[in-house]
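Usage example:
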Amino acid sequence: MEWENKDRQSTAVSTLGEFALIEHLTKGFELQNPGSLVGIGDDAAVIHFQKEHGLISTDMLVEGVHFDLGYMPLTHLGYKSAVVNISDICAMNGRPTQLTLSLAVSNRFTLEALEHFYDGFAKACAHYKVDLVGGDTTSSNKGMIISVTVLGEAEKEKTTYRSKAADNELLVVSGDLGGAYLGLQVLEREKQVFQVNPQHQPDLEPYHYLVERQLKPEARLDIVELLEKLEVQPTAMIDISDGLSSEVIHLCQNSQLGCQLYEEKIPIDPTVISTSEEFKMDPTTVALNGGEDYELLFTIKQEDFPKIKGNPNLTVIGHMTEASRGAQLVTRSGELFPLQAQGWNAFNQED
Amino acid sequence: MEWENKDRQSTAVSTLGEFALIEHLTKGFELQNPGSLVGIGDDAAVIHFQKEHGLISTDMLVEGVHFDLGYMPLTHLGYKSAVVNISDICAMNGRPTQLTLSLAVSNRFTLEALEHFYDGFAKACAHYKVDLVGGDTTSSNKGMIISVTVLGEAEKEKTTYRSKAADNELLVVSGDLGGAYLGLQVLEREKQVFQVNPQHQPDLEPYHYLVERQLKPEARLDIVELLEKLEVQPTAMIDISDGLSSEVIHLCQNSQLGCQLYEEKIPIDPTVISTSEEFKMDPTTVALNGGEDYELLFTIKQEDFPKIKGNPNLTVIGHMTEASRGAQLVTRSGELFPLQAQGWNAFNQED
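Running the assembly step on the lines above writes:
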C-alpha cells in the first residue's frame, strides 16, 4: 500500500514534532475568504461572518467503518472529507466559508501519506473557496480517524431548514442517484478479485462515472447558486448522504407531512441501470437506498415550478401530502408502498 | 471496568440506530445561549454571533494517547473534553458560545457508558453556559476517539493574540502550575499498584488537589471576566496545555521577543512541592514542563500592574525582553538558563 511505512525513502511522522507536523502539512493553505481574519497558528481562528446566520456542521470518518484505504486513494479521501461537510452547508442553502480538520493516524502512516491526504483536502478548499482555519494531527492506536467541522453562512431569509415544507409543495432532487453506491460495489468486487489474484488488472473504464461518484463526490454548491439565480427559495432542504428514501422520510417527519414519490421520476444515470442489472439489483432500490450521492433534496412552492422546469440539473420527483398519508412510493404500475429508511448504522457494520 | 459490555443489564450501542442514538444522548441538552438559533437536528446548526469576532478551535483526544480509561472516569472525560476546548477560547480573551462533539467508540462501549460521557459533557456546557449544537456518534475499530470543536466570540478590540506582546511588558500567569501533571503521576502509580494487587485500596486523599487538577480541570473563563472587570486588556495570551516552558516560548516566538522568567515567582501549590519530593522530582521542573493545567499565560503593559497587584489569582512571573536575549529562566541563585520546550509529541508516546 502506498501509504504504509515500508519504503526507506519514506518519512516517519514521529520525526517531526506535533507543531512542526501541522505547520508542514498546512503550509500550502492560504486564506482566501474575506471573513477568515486569522487562520491556523493561535489558540483559535478568528472569523467574521458577513451574513446574519452562521452555520456549523461536523462529521467523523473512521477507517474500516466509513472508508477502505484498499481502494480509496488518500488524495481522494482528503477531498471527500471536505466535500461531505461542505454538502451539509449547501443543504441549508448556505455558502461554506471555513473548515477545521483533525486527523488521528497510526504509526504505519508516513509523512508522504499525510501529504497526499492534505493535498486532496486543499484541492477541495480551493474548489469551494473555503479556508482551512484550524485542526489537530495526532496519533491513533489503529487506523485513520478524520474529523472535519465546517462553517458557513447564509442570509436569514435564505437559510433553509428540514422542517418548513408545506402540503402540496413539489419535491425536487438535483443530479442523479445511486451512482456512488454502485461505485462502491464495483470497487469492493475489484478488491476481492485482487485478493485472489494480485496480477489481475482491473478494467474500471466502463464504471468510470460510478467510481468517480464514490471516490470524488461533489457538494452541490452550484445548485445553491442556481436556485439563487432562478430566484427560487426552497422551502425545505436536506442533502442525500444516506439514500433518497431515508432523506425523504427525514423531510416528511421534520415538516410533519407525508409525500408521494414517483418511481418513474427518480433520475437514474444509464450506467446505474446497466450496472444494477450486472449486480442483479433493482435500479430503483439502488437509487432509493444507496447513499453518498450528496445530491440536494428540497421542496418548492407549486408557483415556482415554471422557474425550474426543463432545467437538466433538477427533477421534480413528487409532492408533499398530509402527514396521515405517510411517505409513499408510487410505482410505475401505480401501486403505493410506504417508503422505508434503510438508515445506515455505523455500529452494525462488519469489518 | 464500568464501561465495558459485560453486564447483562447493559445496553449494546448497536441496538439503537445512529439517529436514535444521537437523539437519546443529546436529549438533555437545552439551548441557553441567545446566539444559538438552531441546535442539533438539521444538516447544520444555525448561530448568530453578537460580537464582531467569531472564534473557532478544535481538539482531538484519543484513548491510549491522551487519556487512559483505567483511571479516567467517563463523566470526568466528558467534562474535560469540553473544558480543554473552552480553554482555547479563553486564551483569545473570548467567551465560548457553542460546541460540537464527535465520538467514535468500539463495540465494547455500552449505551450507559456513553451516557456517562455525555453527562459530564453536559455538566461542562451548563457550567460555562455553552450550547452543544452538533456532532456525530459512530463506531471505531479500537477504543474511543473524541473530537470537539468550540465556537466563541469577542469584541474586536478585546481579542488577544499570541503575537502582540511588546518589550518590557509583564508576563503573568493565573492559578498555580504542575498540579495536573503530578495528579497523572499519582494515578499512574495507583494503576500499577492495582495491577499487581487488585485488593489494594488506594488512599488518594492526600493528593486530592492534584487528582482533581488532572481529572476535572477548569477553563479560566473567570480570569477573562476578572480582567474585564479590572479593565486590563492583555496584550498577548495563550493557555497552558503543554507546560509553562513551551507556552512561554510560543509567546516569545509569535511576538518576536525574548523574556526573563523568574523561578522564584512561579506559583506552585504546597501539595505540588511535597508530592514532587515524594516522586523525586524538582517542583520547578514539574511546573515548567508538566502540562494540562489550563491556566492562562499573558502579558500586560507595565502601567496595568497596579490593577492586578495583590490579586490572589494572578502572579507576575517575569517580563518580555528583546528577541536577541532569548527566553530565559532566572534561577533562585540568579543564574540564567535558556527555557526549553519539552513539547508533547503524540507520535512519540508509548502505549
